[in-house]
Specification:
This protein is mostly helical and 715 residues long. The protein is built from 17 helices and six strands. The protein is flat and about 105 Å long. The N terminus is likely disordered.
């Protein structure tokens, strides 16, 4: 019988396995490279859709929608700890931008969760696998979800927390570049296990009881079985870890409870001391609380008694003379009692004596900003009562008007005296506009005053004077452009004909605010939110509006001479007949803007997006339009003489009647004489007019002779 032949493998024949080719890079280098690759993937997954969304938002004319609430919440969550300025109010963005920015948040989170899942189940992520790195537990198995959460949590939390504390509470704050550098250095140090302390093993691996090992080297646990007495070098440890270091020893360390059982006397002593300390703290704290409450109660009782005494003295039947009443009124202003404030406000609107009125206002000023709520309530009541009185009841209207005048004066004086201490004051819907006539004529005068943090929403501030005033403060940290800046809210307020020249309105919220005919010359409106605001006939000469949001705002007839609107968002704004001589509009979003009859002479519109804009009959003499987007723009009868159009996108633009050269040239026979240097001819060399609409014969001839391009008639 034939013996069957058994085919043996090379291993069965005793031939040794060929070892894998060793990676030339050390484990430490590959470990860091894999970590950098993981971070880069997460960052790119968020930055790419964010960048596309930002580009789409400024370069297209898509339908605008409110910013996703999730994005608003995410923005604020990030802004607060990093001291970044946050955006206030409703922001309108392109619908695609809303979608892309949502992806920019969700993509890094999803990718991070996926990487953690792979790490828990397989011990490797894609970058780790590429670099030949693996994470295992003591049994040479994938670490599992609990260990991964501990590992990655400490990996992120420990270095970032250390960097943040060092940055936030030192002179390094609020420079974000320094924080980023610190976070990177701390992360690298943590990844190396803070070598001076831990001999190279990463801290997050020690927290999770895992090992980052070389996946290309066969498992050999004997390399770890060293005697405790022997001292390892860092090289020995790395070599062991590169061979999938596994410590088979599972020696349990003595816990705290074991120590307590072994040392009952010391344990009892510690418990007794802690109990005595707790009892002592409780007794002292209780006594302090009781004493504080008693003192507060006594003070309130004393104030109440004083208030009743003063009130009786001010009674018409008390027989007190004017000087005594004055002293009593001023004494009321020293009481820390809400009843006193309420009484003084009521007394203010019912008093007719000018001397006593002045004393009441002084008393309210002494109370300070706590008197504002009562004054506001009275202001709203007087306004309603005044509106309800028929116009034919003149005497009654005059009496009520005087009361309102006294109330307005008191508010005005408190805001002026407590300059810079106005954060959190609520003056919404108050009537503070110019009113009355003669001696009772009120005009809000708050020039060069710090009015930051006030809520003026829906307030009537018509004809008020705020020249040089500041509506934005540095906040508690004393630093500008941080999350806690005090920002005044002027949304839907009435500021018609108000004087806001030289005022600091940077980042101030002015959504749908009425600023018609207001004086805003040289005002600081950087990054201000003027969505839907009415700025018709407003004066904005030399105003700083860089980065401001003026979506759907009305600036008809406004003076924007030499104003700076670089990077501003004027999507859908109405700018008919506006004076914008020398105005800087570089990189501005001017999609669907209306400029009929506007004067944009010598304006800087380079790289501005004017797609679908209406520039009919606009004067653009000498305007800089280099690399501007004029796609589908209406340029009918516009004057482009001396304008620089080099690099501009004119696809679909309507050039019917557009002036490219002086009319006195009157070129005949389709020939235009080359204009000499210094004439009023537009600079169009290299500009593509192939997709421009409604070109006449003279324009075509001029384009061809001046270096323009058209694929049909310029040969």
């Amino acid at each position: 019988m034939a013996t069957p032949m058994v085919r043996r493998s090379s291993n069965q024949l005793g031939q040794p396995k060929q070892p894998r080719r060793a990676n030339p890079l050390s484990l430490s280098s590959r470990r860091v490279a894999a970590w950098v690759a993981e971070i880069t993937l997460c960052a790119v997954s968020g930055l790419v859709p964010f960048g596309i969304g930002a580009y789409t938002n400024t370069k297209t004319n898509m339908e605008r929608v409110p910013l996703n609430p999730v994005l608003v919440a995410a923005e604020r969550t990030i802004a607060y700890p990093l001291a970044l300025p946050i955006s206030y109010g409703t922001r309108n963005v392109a619908w695609s931008t809303n979608f892309l920015w949502t992806i920019a948040i969700l993509a890094p989170l999803s990718l991070s969760c996926w990487q953690w899942y792979l790490l828990a189940k397989t011990g490797s992520t894609t970058p780790k696998r590429l670099f030949g790195v693996k994470v295992v537990n003591q049994e040479n198995q994938p670490p599992g979800f609990r260990a991964v959460l501990l590992r990655e949590g400490s990996r992120i939390a420990l270095p970032i927390s250390a960097a943040y504390m060092l940055w936030r509470y030192t002179l390094l704050f609020p420079n974000l570049g320094i924080f980023a550098a610190l976070a990177l250095l701390m992360s690298l140090a943590e990844a190396m296990g803070f070598p001076m302390l831990r001999q190279g093993r990463s801290t997050h691996d020690r927290v999770a009881d895992t090992y980052t090992v070389d996946a290309t080297v066969p498992f050999d646990p004997s390399l770890l079985r060293r005697k405790k007495k022997s001292k390892w070098t860092q090289g020995d440890e790395e070599a062991a870890i590169e061979s999938i270091v596994v410590t088979p020893q599972n020696q349990k360390k003595d816990s705290f409870w074991v120590w307590m059982r072994q040392n009952p006397s010391l344990t009892l002593l510690g418990v007794a001391l802690l109990s005595m300390a707790g009892v002592l703290v409780t007794l002292v704290g209780t006594q302090i609380y009781i004493q504080t409450q008693e003192n507060q109660k006594a003070a309130n009782q004393s104030n109440k008694e004083q208030f009743l005494k003063f009130k009786q003295q001010l009674n018409s039947n008390s027989g007190a003379n004017k000087q005594e009443r004055q002293r009593t009124i001023l004494a009321l202003g020293t009481l820390k009692d809400s009843q006193a404030t309420e009484f003084l406000v009521s007394l203010l609107v019912n008093e007719n004596d000018p001397v006593l009125l002045e004393s009441i206002q002084r008393a309210l000023i002494n109370i300070g900003t706590p008197a504002i709520p009562e004054l506001k309530s009275m202001n709203l009541l007087l306004e309603r009562e005044l509106d309800s009185i028929p116009s034919n009841r003149t005497r009654e209207r005059e009496s009520k008007g005087k009361s309102l005048y006294a109330n307005q004066q008191a508010i005005n004086k408190i805001l002026f005296v407590y300059n810079g201490n106005t954060n959190g004051i609520d003056l919404s819907r108050t009537q503070l506009s110019q009113s009355g006539s003669g001696n009772s004529s009120f005009t809000l005068a708050l020039d060069k005053v710090d009015l930051w943090g006030i809520d003026f929403k829906y307030a009537n501030l018509d004809r008020g004077s705020f020249s040089g005033s500041r509506f934005r403060g540095p906040g508690k940290d004393g630093r500008w452009d941080t999350y806690d800046d005090w920002i005044t809210d002027l949304s839907q307020a009435q500021l018609k004909q108000a004087d806001l020249s030289l005022a600091n309105l940077s980042r101030v919220l002015m959504v749908r605010t009425n600023l018609s005919r207001a004086n805003l010359n040289k005002a600081n409106l950087k990054a201000a939110r003027l969505v839907g605001a009415n700025l018709s006939s407003a004066r904005l000469a030399k105003a700083d509006l860089r980065g401001a949001v003026l979506e759907n705002a009305s600036l008809t007839g406004a003076d924007l001479g030499e104003a700076r609107l670089n990077d501003a968002d004027l999507y859908g704004a109405r700018l008919g007949r506006v004076i914008a001589i020398g105005t800087q509009l570089s990189n501005a979003n001017l999609i669907k803007t209306e400029w009929q009859g506007a004067d944009l002479s010598s304006a800087y519109l380079d790289r501005a997006n004017l797609s679908n804009a209406n520039l009919s009959a606009a004067r653009l003499t000498g305007a800089i339009l280099r690399s501007a987007n004029l796609q589908n723009a209406n340029l009918r009868n516009a004057d482009l003489s001396l304008a620089d159009l080099r690099g501009a996108n004119l696809a679909g633009a309507d050039f019917q009647g557009t002036i490219l050269f002086p009319r006195q040239q009157n070129p005949a026979d389709k020939f235009v004489e080359t204009p000499a240097t210094g004439t009023q001819s537009a600079v169009i060399k290299g500009v593509d007019f192939s997709e421009v609409k409604n070109l006449d014969e003279n324009q075509k001839a001029y384009i061809c002779t001046q270096g323009g391009f058209h694929n049909t008639f310029c040969r």
